[in-house]
Amino acid sequence: MRLVKFIVIIILCLFGIYSISMNFVDESKSFVHHSEIDYPVDRVFPQFNNLQNFTTWNDFFNEKDNISYNFFSPYEGIGSAMKFSDKKNDDFGDLFIRYSNPNRTLRYQLFEGDSENPYLIDVKFIPSGNKTKMIWNIHTPKRSYLERSLNLVAEDFFVENIDKSMKNLYLLLGNKVNKDQILASVKYDSVMVENREGGLLLGVNVSARNTKDILFKNVIMNHNKVLNFVKSDLAKKDDEFGTPVLMTNPANLKDKEVSYFYGVPLSKRTSVSDNNFNFQTINPSKMYVIYYQGNYTGRIKNIQELVKKAKKDTLRNGQLMEEFLEEPAENQDVKLKLSLPVYR
């Protein structure tokens, strides 16, 4: 009995010491951190301004193995929002972009769990030649009396997270630069021969009116639909899927309506709950390839060249494959890799 009383007294004493010490800890905390990355601001800012990009390199999300996301339109800039959840560890929250001044300033609001008080995170971007300096102003949420001890470690947590995130972003942008360099060396409008490995695509079957504006808008819509599904519903990161592919019958490209499949390459089949999405298998084959840059409608001439060469070589052809080497956007030219499988 004495032992129990002794333990209770010790606990009460420790609680009393803790309570007294919390009088000297602020209910919230603000601090500033400086960072720098060796890439220009026009490459860096889009990685912050789009929450789907943001989650691929930010260590706060990267270190969570079982996390899933839901992203809400608009997918970049003011009003962007997402929910994240790690059910295994009972970890969830919301992230919002409340202010966005392109290449200059961003403000995030981060809510963790059921808390109604957010973290406020302001990031200022300062161009410095081919480098970008960033000033992070972080304000922690108001905490209850018993939770104030978290403010004692908040700064160390954020500084470590930011430094790790900058390393991740540097590597990510390095891969993108390599891709840009490869694109810069591409020879357009020349027919080449490649051997393509087989693969697996996850995407949607679509039919659309074959007019200049309507078809391209439809392709952009389904491009975004497929990528959003793969990134948010399947929680796939950029390095877990390949370049989006549009597959269609080249003989039907002059019809009033065009049917096509739009999907992204995945390494293996996964469970898909949305019946709008399905898998298609690509068989390994010899390909006639041509790269095209320009108005989306103008690609028809290059496709005809591929079909013409197949006929000249007395070969049959399969479904045409169109790969967008850059994100398709309305009223902008496209960069495409057009591939036509051929066989005897």
Any overview of this molecule?
The chain crosses the membrane at residues 6-25. InterPro entries: Reg_factor_effector_dom_sf (IPR011256). It comes from Epilithonimonas xixisoli. This is Polyketide cyclase/dehydrase/lipid transport protein. With 344 residues, the chain is of the alpha+beta class. The chain has two domains: 23-184, 2-Layer Sandwich (Alpha-D-Glucose-1,6-Bisphosphate, Chain A, domain 4); 192-343, Regulatory factor, effector binding domain (Multidrug-efflux Transporter 1 Regulator Bmrr, Chain A, Alpha-Beta Barrel). It has helices at residues 2-22, 41-49, 51-57, 59-62, 151-184, 212-233, 299-312, and strands spanning 30-37, 68-72, 81-86, 91-101, 105-112, 119-128, 131-139, 192-196, 199-209, 245-248, 257-266, 278-282, 285-294, 316-317, 320-324, 334-343. The strands form two sheets. Strands 8, 9, 10, 11, 12, 13, 14, 15 and 16 form a nine-stranded antiparallel beta sheet that branches. A seven-stranded antiparallel beta sheet has the order 1-7-6-5-4-3-2. Helix 2 (41-49) crosses helix 3.
Summarize the structure.
This protein has helices at residues 2-22, 41-49, 51-57, 59-62, 151-184, 212-233, 299-312; strands spanning 30-37, 68-72, 81-86, 91-101, 105-112, 119-128, 131-139, 192-196, 199-209, 245-248, 257-266, 278-282, 285-294, 316-317, 320-324, 334-343. It has 344 residues and is of the alpha+beta class.
Order of helices and strands: HEHHHEEEEEEHEEHEEEEHEEE
Q: Gyration radius, to the nearest Å?
A: 26 Å
Number of helices: 7
Mean pLDDT, all residues = 82
CATH topology of the largest domain: Alpha-D-Glucose-1,6-Bisphosphate, Chain A, domain 4
In total, how many domains does the architecture comprise?
2
The count of β-strands is 16
CATH homologous superfamily descriptor of the largest domain: START domain
CATH architecture of the largest domain: 2-Layer Sandwich
Largest β-sheet summary: 9 strands, antiparallel
CATH class of the largest domain: Alpha Beta
First-residue to last-residue Cα separation? 92 Å
- Percent range of helical residues: 25-40%
Shape: elongated
